[in-house]
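Exercise 7.
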Amino acid sequence: MNSKKIVVVQNRPTQFDVPLYALAHRNSDFDLTVFYTEVSTADDAAIDQEINIPPQWDHLLGLDYDHVFESTAFRLWRGIIALHPQHVVICGWYPRSQALLALLLRLSGIRIGVRSDNTLEHTNLSGFYGWLKRSVMFVWLGLFHAWHPVGTLARAYVQKLSAIQRPVYYFPYAIDVDWFTENAARHHVQRSELRSQLGLAADDYVVLGVMKWATREDPLTLVEALLGAAIKLPNIKLLLVGDGPLKPEVMQRFAESTGRLVAPGYAKYSELPMYYAIADIFVHPARSEPYGVSVQEAMACGLPVIVSDKVGAAAEFLELGSNGDIFPAGNVLDLTSLLITWAKKTPDGSIQDAALRKARDWSYALTLNEWKRCLDARR
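Solution. The predicted structure, written as tokens, is:
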């Protein structure tokens, strides 16, 4: 057993953290144990509330690392202190057991940090409730010895709302970049054949959206922009992966544009690299998205990305004009113009290289290095 131990507490396994923890388990620099506070994964919380569909994370073959399922704060506390960890990362304060656990650990003299994805852009701090939130966060953030924001915007949030500044160690919603890159490359060899199976031609300019067909992620802005761009680009097509309550509206808009839309439905996670591999560009038009993991997924597959200015991941991944662009959320004309501009660019390796390079900047390696820095600071 290693003398340096780190504990992570979160509500349930996720598509991006499970591979990270498995990688950390094989790391010789420290020991990791993960505590999950939602014991059952078969309840309503396993259903995506925006689209009423359970997530299809079929790439997760098991929790190949030390982990415990426990929902009671007192038992969590006892289990953690028995490990004598140098640091405990608590991912947010939901469910309430995690908030109580933070207090118990602090009172026990255990060093704790909080993982946060809140951003100033996506938080309403006005009025009475804004004042109340600022007051609560003022006290809450001071409880921790360190902060683990998911990105630079989340870092700005905790630094703005806390009176006491703490050391920062990034803990992003990173993906398995190598897994996406390698699987996309494997599918890219069959690009023409895979396109044909979906009714797409080899010379089509394929715009990809992977999203919930719900108001927040705003597929209709992408649909309208695509139809507008089609006036000048006859070979432009939309590959729209997903499902949700806006499906009738999306399908209705394409009813008179036969062959312009390919909608394969809600995809399993293992299928995503295939869709990225056969596309030419990825668009995330969300009206509110504090982060946006799909931006990194697309870039790991070498795609340029266009995002709305409400997608937080843009701060980490976008180099304007080099690997993508940004448009004002909901602005159909601006998105239309960007689609036309990018469709006319001559494909070359520089765009793919720029996308992949930024995807690797926020990889699992970054998180592991940040954890090492955090543990080393305790010497």
